[in-house]
Design a protein that fits this description.
Aminopeptidase; alpha+beta; 11-stranded mixed beta sheet
Length: 266
Amino acid sequence: MFADLTLARRLERTEASACRAFVDARAEMRPELGASWTEIAGAYAMFDGVGSPITQTFGLGMFEIATDADMEAIETFFRSRGADVHHEVSPLADISLLNSRGYEPFEFTSVMFQPLDEAHSTGNDVVARIAGPEDYSTWVDVSTDGWSEAQEYAHLIRDLSEVSVGRSNSLSFLAEIEGCPVAAGSLCLHDGVALFAGACTIPSARRQGAQQALHHARMQYAKEAGCDLAMMCAAPGSTSQRNAERHGFRIAYTRIKWRQVRPPGA
């Protein structure tokens, strides 16, 4: 399997669909926030509140070539809600309009994939399982603790976790050591692709195999659900990326996040 446009479209649409489900869950849980999404020129534009990392587009330039009118419609979608305009874009996409419309790159993400017929994960003594509704508050607690060191979004983690655990087309997993929950992760399924997301371990239980157990449990579920491809996203050079590569993932491309710093023509 090659990291070509066909693969990139599958990966980008899978993450976009997971974020779209997140916005739908937010709209149901907190209708006063006005969370919503729309599709313009094949891109999903999503509003999850001002300052949320979900408030951005996915898939811009991947499925259609956006016109100036399309870009204006997308920008109006965000600006009318008081949000900055952000696009997370694959390098395989057509981004010819970004420079002329006042955008600059400011963040990078490694998008990784693994054909599931190449996956050979093995378990360990840590028990990982799907979290049921009775576990949701525990899952949120573990996720909040596990991501507490991510300073940029630390103040949002509990809120994001509470929405994540309730979205459709997603499963939440817990890893336990001697019955004590120590790690959490999500699995989002779309069109045969399994997105491994949100995995973390509480600081006091790290380096005991919790991430390996979470990976194994999610990989097994994805295979049994009929998925042929797994994907993960991580900051370039991060511990998360190294762990993914140890489990057989390889980098498809580095995605770039763009922000509009001046209006067109300024």
